[in-house]
Structure formats: C-alpha cells, structure tokens
Amino acid sequence: MKKYNEMKKYVDVDTLKYMLYDVHNLEGLLKRERFQDHDKESLDMFLDSSKDFADKELFPFIKEMDEKPAHYKDGTVYVHDQVKTMMHKGGELGIISAPFDYEDGGMQIPLVVYTAATYILDAANNHLPGYAGLTQGAAELIIHFANKELNETYVPNMLSGQWGGTMCLTEPQAGSSLSDIVTKAKPTSDGYYKLSGQKIFISGGDNQFSENIVHLVLARVEGAPKGTKGISLFVVPKNRPDSSGSLISNDITTVADFQKLGQRGYCTTHLGFGDADDCRGWLVGDENQGLKYMFLMMNAARIGVGRGASAIASAAYYASLQYANERPQGRKLTRDGKKDPNENQSLIIEHPDVRRMLLLQKAVVEGSMSLVLRAAKYYDLELTATSDEEKSKYNTLLEMIIPVVKTYPSEAGSYAVNNGLQVLGGYGFCSDFILQQYYRDIRICAIYEGTTGIQSQDLLGRKITMGNGSGLALLSVEILKTIKESKSHKSLQPYAAELSNKLELTQKILESLMPHALKGDYERYLADASIFMEFFSLIIISWSWLEIATKAQENLNTSEASLSDDFYLSKIETMKYFYDYELPKTLGHAAILMNPSTVTIKKEKEYIN
Amino acid sequence: MKKYNEMKKYVDVDTLKYMLYDVHNLEGLLKRERFQDHDKESLDMFLDSSKDFADKELFPFIKEMDEKPAHYKDGTVYVHDQVKTMMHKGGELGIISAPFDYEDGGMQIPLVVYTAATYILDAANNHLPGYAGLTQGAAELIIHFANKELNETYVPNMLSGQWGGTMCLTEPQAGSSLSDIVTKAKPTSDGYYKLSGQKIFISGGDNQFSENIVHLVLARVEGAPKGTKGISLFVVPKNRPDSSGSLISNDITTVADFQKLGQRGYCTTHLGFGDADDCRGWLVGDENQGLKYMFLMMNAARIGVGRGASAIASAAYYASLQYANERPQGRKLTRDGKKDPNENQSLIIEHPDVRRMLLLQKAVVEGSMSLVLRAAKYYDLELTATSDEEKSKYNTLLEMIIPVVKTYPSEAGSYAVNNGLQVLGGYGFCSDFILQQYYRDIRICAIYEGTTGIQSQDLLGRKITMGNGSGLALLSVEILKTIKESKSHKSLQPYAAELSNKLELTQKILESLMPHALKGDYERYLADASIFMEFFSLIIISWSWLEIATKAQENLNTSEASLSDDFYLSKIETMKYFYDYELPKTLGHAAILMNPSTVTIKKEKEYIN
Fold this sequence. Notes:
The structure is a homodimer of 609-residue chains.
Chain A: H1 13-23, H2 26-29, H3 40-58, H4 62-67, E1 71-73, E2 76-78, H5 82-93, H6 111-124, H7 129-145, H8 148-159, E3 164-168, E4 184-187, E5 193-203, E6 213-221, E7 232-237, E8 239-241, E9 247-249, E10 252-257, E11 268-273, E12 280-283, H9 290-296, H10 298-326, H11 352-383, H12 388-423, H13 435-441, H14 452-463, H15 470-486, H16 493-518, H17 522-527, H18 529-556, H19 565-582, H20 585-593
Parallel strand pairs in A: 3-6, 4-6
Antiparallel strand pairs in A: 1-2, 4-5, 5-11, 5-12, 6-7, 7-12, 8-9, 10-11
Helix pairs in contact in A: 1-6, 1-11, 3-5, 3-6, 6-10, 6-11, 7-8, 10-11, 10-12, 10-13, 11-12, 11-18, 11-19, 12-13, 12-14, 12-15, 12-18, 14-18, 15-16, 15-18, 16-18, 18-19, 18-20
C-alpha cells in the first residue's frame, strides 16, 4: 500500500522511444533538411534531460500543487513556487523554444520529439507544463503573424521563460461560441488599439513571479462585421514598455482565479481589460483575421491537450500497476470454485478482473500516446514537405485525425484513470493516494480547446465531408498500408482482417448518414456526432495498435532488437486486449448510428424535464 | 449561469410517486397484513415530510459539507453541525426506525416507501443520510440476532438517533477479503469478550455529537477456524454502561479520519479496539456465525448504495438540466449547414448533443430509481409472503437482481454525472458549480459494500448459477410478463421485441460461458464477469424502462390519470432513448463474452508492465 510519495514511475521512456523510433520512424524524418543537425543521440539527450528535469522539478510537487492550489488575493494570483522553476529552468532547457526555427531562437526540434518530451513533463506533473505551453503558443502566433517590432519586443523574453504568455478567447456570455465575442478594440492614431472587455478561463493568466505576461487577445474592432468574420487578434501585455523601455502597467485587472475540480496548481483566471481606459493592444497581422490566425495554431494546441490527457492516464496507470503488484488480497479459485483460506493471499495483479483494468489502462495510454505522436509527425512532415502535393497530403491527414487526437485521450483517458482508481478499491478514493487526483485532473481535457461535442461536430461535419470524402480516402490508404504490413505476420492476420471489416463498417455508417446532409438536414446528420466520434476513435486507435504490434513482431523476429522479448510481447498482448475488449464496442455504435430515427432532436413539445 | 446556491431541484417527487404507485403497484402491497395501517395518504405524508426535511435541513448544506469536511483532531472526529440535526430530527421523523416492527419501536413502513423517502434525502445531501442509515443497519442486526438484554440496552437510543451505529468489517490487511480478518475476541468469564484489533474505512465511526456509537464488529474468537467460517459478530459500544448504567469509555481509539475525493462530510474513520486491553464486546447470536448475520443484512445495505448513487445522479441531472434551460450559447444550423450570427443564440438544451447528455442522465436516473424500488418491493414481498413458496420466489428474485441494484446505479450513475458536468462545459469543472462535487461524491458507490468486480463475481458466479439456473428462469418469467403487457400497446411492440431478443442473447452468452464452469475452470468462467455485469444490467434496466413506458401509455389512454400527458410522454421518450442509445451496447458485450479466448488471465510470463 504505497502512498503518493512512495510512487516511482509515471511514464515508460522505453515505450516512448519505441513509439518514436520503431513505430513512427523518427530516423526517416531526421533525413529532412530542417532536422539535419539532429540525430538519435542528440534527441535522446533532449528526452533524457527532460526526464531528469521532470523527475527532479515536476513529479515531487504534483500532490502539493493540488493541496495548495493557485489562488487569488488582493488583485494577484499566487501560484506554487515551482511555476518559476518550470518557466526559468524549463526555458533554459528549451521547453518553450525547442520546435521554433533557429532564426526565431529555436532549436528546430521535430514536433514529434518535442511532443514526447512534453509528454514526460505532463505525466510527471500536469499542473506545470501548461505555463510553458501557452507561452510557446502565444510566441508562435507572434512569430508567424505579427510584425518585426512585436517580435523583437516580446518573443525573446517569452522563449527564455522570463515572460509568460496566454490565449484569451472565452468570454462569460460566449463560452465555446466565439462568434459572440464582444471585447472591443478601438483604433488610435498612435498605432495601437484601446482594448476593453472581460475574458474568462484564461489559463496561466497571472502569477506573482512573471515580470510580464503577454496576452494574445481576440477582440472586435469597432464597426467590424458580426460573427466570426469580425474578430481580430491583439498582443496585449500585462505590462507595456514605455518610451524608455521600462515596463509600466497596461490596465489589465485580475478579477479572480477560478477554483476547480482538478489541475488546481494551474491557475485559471478572469481578466478585465481597460477598466481605466488605458489598456493598449497591438494588432497581429490584419484586422478581422484573428480567428483564422488563432485556428492555424489550434492543431498544435489540440495535440497538446491529447498529449496531456494521455500523460495523466500514464501516470495513473503506473500508480495503479505498482499498487496491484504490491497489494496482496483474496485468493485464486480452486477447481471446485471455492477459496482455501490456508493458501497465501494472491497479489491483486493475479486476479483477471484487476488485469482487465490494468490492460485497459495500458491499451488506452499507449494507444493514445502513439496517436498524439502520429499527429505531431504529420505536422513535421507537412512543415518539411518538398512539394505542394506532399504538404497537402500531410495537412489533410492531420486535419482528419486532429479531432480524435484531442478527444480520444481525453475521454478514454478519463475512463482509464477511473479504472486505475478502482484497482485501489477504497484507497483509490482516499486523498493520501494519488489516483483520486489524476481522476480530477484529467477531467478538464474533454473540455479544453473545444469540448468533445464540438470536436465531434468538427469530425463528422467538416473533416469527414472534406473534399467530398477525399480526406477520409487518404487516411484509409494509410490504414490499409498498416493492414498490409501486418499481414506478413500470420499471428496478426486475424486482427488485420478485423480492422478491414471495421473500415467497411465505417463506409456503411456514412452511407446511412449522408442522405441527411445531402437533403440539408444538418441537425439530423450531426445529431449523433459524439457517437460517431467514439466509433471512429476506436478504428483509429486499433490502427495504431496494429502498427505497434507489427513493429513488435518484427523486433521479435530479428536478433538486433534493442529491447527484451518481454517488452515486445507485452505490446502484442495489449493490442489483443484492445481488439478483443475495446473494438467490439463499435458494434453498438454502428447500431445507434444506423438507426433511422433519433430521439435527441427537439420536437414541438419539450419532453426533457 | 446558476451557481449551487441558486439551484432548486434535486429530485422529482412526482416521478418517485409514479414509480411507487403506478409502476410498482404499492397499493397492492398495502393490502398485506403487515402494512394494513398504511394507506396512500399516510405514506404520501411520510414522503412529503421527508421532502420538507430534506429541503430545509439537508440540501442547503451540501456544498458547505464538502468545503468544510469531517476531520480528525486530538482523538476525535469533528463533523458538520448538521449531522446532529440529521440524527435527532431525522430520528424523530422515523428515518431510522420507520421500517422496523411496531414491537421493536418501528412503524412497519414498507421498505419500498422507506427507500423512496431516503432517496429524497440522499438526493438532497448525500453526506448526511449515511449516519442514520448505518445506525439503522446496526440496530437491525441487534434486533434480529442479539439477545434481549443487548436489544434493551442499545436499540431504543439508536432508533431515536441519540446514539449512532456502525458496521466494522474492513481491516488494513484484508480489504474486501473478509476471510482474512484478524481482529481478536477473547472470551471472559463475565459474559463479554475482550476485543483487540484495527478497523478501517468505518463510515460514521466517530463524531463530536454522539453520546455513544454502537459498533457492530466482525472479529475472530480465539481458536476459531480460519477463513470466513471463524468470524463472529459483536456489539462493541464506544462507551459502555457501567453497573450503575452510566456510560464509561470502552477503550476504542479513533486513530484517524480518512480524507477523500468525495462525500467529505461523511466521516470515514480508522478505529483501534482494545489498546489498553479494556475493550468489551458482546457476542451477537452464536460464535462463528458473524458473517452469515452480516450478510443477511447485506441486501438492504446494497439497495442503500444503489439508492444513494441513483439519488446523486438525480441531483446532478436536475442541476445540469437547469443550466441547459438557462444558458444561451451557439445557434441552430441553417439549411446550408452554417450559423447566422444575426440570429439570437439558442439555449443549449436545443442542441441535440446536449439533449443526448440530458436524456442519458434521465434514462439512468429514473431507470435506476425504478430498479432500487423494485428490489425494495421484492424485500417487502418476501417479508410478508404468506407461503414458503412465495417467500422463496421473492427471495430468489431479490438475490438475482441485487448485484445489479448495487452496481448499475453506481457505475452508470457516475457516467451520467460525468455527462451532467460536460453539459456545463468549463463551468462544470469549476468549484462554484455543484456538478464537480457530485462527480466526486458518486465515485465511492462503485466501491462501497463490495466493489463492482466483487458484485460481478457474485452475479455470474453465484446468482446466475443458483439452483442450476432456476433463479434466472424465475426472473425471466417476470421480464416476460412485462413484455407481454407492453405488447398490448402497438407503439411499444418494437421495444418489447427488442427486449425478447436480448433475453435470447443472454441465453446464448451463458451457453458459451458455461462449459468453462462445467469443466472446473472457474477463473476463465468468471474472467469477464464485469463485462457480463454491464450486459445484464442493460437488460434489467431495459425491462424497467419497458415497464415504465407501459404504465405511461396506459395512463395516456385513460382520462383518470393524475399527471399531465407531458409527464407520461417524457417517460416514453426516455424509454426510447434507453433502447436506442444504451441497449445497443449489449452487442459489444456479447462479442466480448462469446470470444473463446481472453487475454486477461495470467500466463507464465508477466506481460502487464
């Protein structure tokens, strides 16, 4: 019965490297010009130093950050001391700058490697990496779309971690509906705009350490069109440089810090802009293009959410696995179905139902880990494509999977952590043990950066229909490649056949849904989008697992594999778990999706009461 | 955007009464001799006074009890002041004594009505009713199995709520495995035993108000057989009466109060017995029969857990429904699949995906409400049976469904609350709103009184095989009755047919599993018991929903129905939701259960790592 402070493992770095090098062929990617300075040795060093940083500076504080949450006092948000370490030491390590171009102060690390490194940090302590992650996202927007002056003024201090950064989208009255944003930006003759309005749920929006925080704010210039077409993007620093270069207050008020179910060390602020009519913002790019800029960054943000969710589930998995390996309880059944009290107690990992809960977690954690790395790899391949066709291909593949990348790790991760908690029985519910915290922490992921409902609308409404289905066709080609490769191993053929069947089932479902869209009944077409998301996610993760198992089988068949046979066998067994216990759920989804009627669309009389 | 303190509704009393009178034919039950003094009017008064008590004394404190949790200080557990009110005012109302015999100080209220009344209390504030519920359970054990002296000494003060009561089963080294209990009881020549040992997870184990707490403790008399056959039951009061009748300390130490994920106002203590070798316990009934006595009470305890879980899900449902009815966000899609920003925002209850999350909750809440009332009705019918045959019938029916009664409301309830939280988006994650608390509170229910894994083993291992399948046959007769009745309404016939199909599928699954048991491979037979539980639960709840919808249709067809057409129509629509969205999940379960192989049984080499 280990409590939190005796827990040792939160991520399996061997698995992470196996995903990078074996499953996702990182060495192939490194041949691209952009990455020519990197090799396995240097990237392993980056990963290992991230792990070392996480071991020393992140993991030891995970529970304390929950117990002493970020809080608001006298106009300031107070966060844990370790936030300073995250930003400054993390900045030195390159946690903020690593994927950027050399000329912007970066290291041109592939996003797939950066994603692996930050996966380690998230798994160690999910309350901390967000401070760096948002700073990176804000810097990226400036680098890509703002003018030279804004770049020079803000980016260097952000990449070093001296200044923080945020994304300010949500407003109290608008929530997920960005077309209803009302924060105002009034042009002045001095080049800047005067901002006024309220933003809520601003992660990392304030803290007692940062000399400055650079907010990237969506607002509406006076007279702009209604809806999403009238939204502009502004750089709005907490403190602005005056003519001498000294920082002076920019009239941004911290109104409150939301207290939350989880991620309590990661502050979530309510900010007021321009209460004294002296809040200056500088336009990024052109007016009314703000949402477009923001959404160009959104794929990376959504990979980040999926990564974080998978990482929390990883930490929860290893905590429950350790418990299961140390806790004796109950006995094996004898041949007459009874238990003999003279026998020693079994370790709970020997009970099939506990093993099911552990395999479920492992299947979700590693399946989603491979998925987020796949997304990052597509991003890298798009970025470094040498032809328009290639660029378009990887862009399309990324667009196709991104709603799943955001959603599956969040939803299935939450389900995995729930099972991890259950492995501990009553102790799982007790605050002395960490599982209950991970159960709370991971719950936000299905809400961040577009809820599951919104991702599902994106998947079925935009991505599946994109180019008259050409995106799905392109993705299917990739899946079929894996199926073909796996078939060269006899033991994998039944699984390959199963995945082929599910691809056919996907077509049948879409044929059954499309008539609604074709006759303009989008409400009906999208009514079960969340069910389609569950269905499609299982297909995508089954693809990942088939790929993982194929590489494992190849490694088993060669004498040159770097890891033990047990390592590879465990991947194949976990693949089987996924195909035997998770993939069959698609049968239920198919029945729901192909049902011609649905009770969820509002009729004349309200019946939900 | 209402916060907790503006929330109004936590349970629908009309639905509760509809379940009692229409669905479960309470007036039929009242014809039995035991209940002859009760009629609809008097029982409605009991329910209404429970609702009034809950409105005034329970619901207003739900959030405060979470924020100021029970805690340990200097040897005592301090709980919220309202615990005193719960016990004393609740005691006056009959919340502890109501179902007992007149001669034992009770009111002979049917358990089904008592369950409805306590459902209201649980929905109002799930941190409080447990104090009364455990006192009742402990009193029940004394009444049924202890001698006259123990009855006279303890029961009256317990029924009035002056003294509390607990059940002390779990020990640190034993967990769910009661055969490993080591608390010792040493006989003395003075009639009592000297107790020594440690008990953990003792709900309601201590508080600053109770003059006394009467612990019902499982312990092993020196020299008793190993395993479950050597466990005896003792009355062990916190304070024992001395020869003059004054209370003196009985050497029970409160070691700690576990801090928890949820139900933080309901204390969970660690108790030490006999540190000074002066802890006296009095044997209940005969030696070595303790587990048998305890388990005779277990069905009622498991109904209580299912009831509490369903009630928490009820409170969460109404909180999310209120939000969905008040929160504008987003817009309906136009015919070209776009949104028009000039349109007013919709209320979120108009979006099909939000409606799905609400219907899901309503289907789980009311389906599980009907299930727990069914279990209590079987209990009443068994208790008042006029022949051995009838007694045996209702005992069997109760035994068959009890693992589902404990598990389905807990697991599906947690899933329902999860969806309720999601309805609120970011606000669902914020502590100002109540959803995040219900999400935490309900999580214990899948652990209390035998985890889901243990219930599943009970269902498939004991109940399904009971009497060579005669229990399942008896239950099927009841389900077929409902199917037959529903068929007289044409609109319900497709649902009746669907449920018939699922009964046939159940048989097929069991035919596929039984060979494992017949050849003595119980580990394999039970390996997927938790999946079978999910499957079987959906059949049982579909049965409840068909019954609910049949009664609703009958009410719609008559001019004498007491509630509005809208009320009955909403029941029928929710039934459809359950059949269209929940029942299809059984297809996946069937595929898992009929798969000849399973990856969850441990092989020679460990592959979970």
